[in-house]
Design goal:
The protein folds into 2 domains: 242 residues, TIM Barrel (Alpha-Beta Barrel), CATH 3.20.20; 66 residues, Orthogonal Bundle (Non-ribosomal Peptide Synthetase Peptidyl Carrier Protein, Chain A), CATH 1.10.1200.80. Helices cover 47% and strands 13% of the residues. It contains 14 helices and 11 strands. By secondary structure, the protein is an alpha/beta fold. The termini are far apart. Strands 3, 4, 5, 6, 7, 8, 9, 10 and 11 form a 9-stranded parallel beta sheet that branches. Strands 1-2 form a two-stranded antiparallel sheet.
């Protein structure tokens, strides 16, 4: 599969997730076989005005290739200018967020709010795709709400204005992440477009990924929440799609050892205190289902050093 001039060696992609898909996590997922990883969404206005925290979100590394940067905004001119700047970065693809349902994003007219205005969508995609030379992709939902499911119109508009691929999350904005994703709607987008289409929603394992790829005809599937604490999903999906063989789930030792590596990488990038706070949610995901995990989570949330966390996790292996 190719997105513009970028070749993807696989059909399972890491979804962008705010507060989760930072550089250390993307590197781990890439190492486990994610065909493409994507940054947390970044405000084009924040980049434009030189926000320091936003600059930290733009960190990338050769170990996470290929990698897309996801931008959001609603001003075609600013987004085009930022596209030109990002074309000089080490990111391989520029992705436009038109699907985020978070109220603080929507109230500013960004994210999934853009789906209310197909004409603006066209202007944004055209500005971003024509201002730089990196392939541009667009991530959408089924519509702003159940009464306005205009995903086919928005997807076609994106293609007509220069998008190299479209990702469809099979839910409307009000659904957020609840209910079941509508893969029949995703299949309709695939049938209507000439560019690659990526399906997103409820991909929870190798067999499910294979089923969705076959039934919808999409070029790739995107994994979001199921990758949290479980980057093995990419390795297992890739192996199953290639061989038909189902690899076993990782054992407790594998999960805890990777959790410790993840914590170390995060501390190196962001410093011990910030990393300690941000790792709490990741650690809860890594140890979920392991005997003693409930008690360990309580201790982790009270701990104030990585030495304590290492001791807590090591004790889990002895239970």
């Amino acid at each position: 599969m190719k997105i513009g001039n970028v070749e993807l060696k696989g059909k399972v992609i890491l979804a962008p997730m705010a507060g989760i898909t930072d550089l250390p996590f993307r590197k781990i997922c890439s190492a486990f076989g994610a065909a493409l990883v994507t940054s947390e969404m970044v405000s084009t206005k924040a980049i434009y005005f030189g926000n320091q925290k936003t600059n930290e979100l733009l960190a990338t590394d050769k170990e996470e290739k290929p990698c897309a940067v996801q931008i959001f905004g609603s001003d075609p001119k600013i987004m085009g200018e930022i596209s030109a700047r990002l074309s000089e970065s080490d990111f391989d693809i520029i992705d436009i967020n038109m699907g985020c349902p978070a109220p603080k994003i929507v109230k500013n007219g960004d994210g999934s709010a853009l789906m209310r205005d197909p004409e603006l969508v066209g202007r944004i995609v055209k500005s971003v795709s024509s201002s730089g030379y990196k392939p541009v992709t667009v991530k959408i939902r089924l519509g702003y709400d159940a009464e306005n499911k205009n995903y086919l119109e928005i997807a076609k508009t994106a293609q007509e204005n220069g998008a190299a691929a479209v990702t469809v999350h099979g839910r409307t904005r009000p659904q957020m992440y609840s209910g079941l994703a509508d893969w029949e709607a995703i299949a309709q987008v695939k049938a209507a477009l000439d560019i690659p289409v990526i399906g997103n929603g409820d991909i929870n394992g190798p067999e499910n990924a294979a089923k969705r790829l076959v039934e919808s005809g999409v070029d790739a599937v995107m994994v979001g929440r199921e990758a949290c604490g479980n980057p093995w999903i990419f390795k297992r999906c890739h192996h199953y799609l290639s061989t038909g063989e189902l690899l076993p789930e990782p054992d407790a030792a594998e999960r805890i050892n990777l959790a410790l590596k993840h914590a170390g990488d995060l501390a190196e990038l962001k410093g011990g205190f910030v990393a300690l706070l941000e790792m709490r949610k990741h650690l809860a995901w890594y140890i979920k289902g392991i005997k003693g995990a409930t008690e360990a989570r309580v201790k982790i949330n009270k701990s104030d050093s990585f030495e304590d966390i290492k001791k807590i996790l090591t004790e889990l292996l002895d239970m």
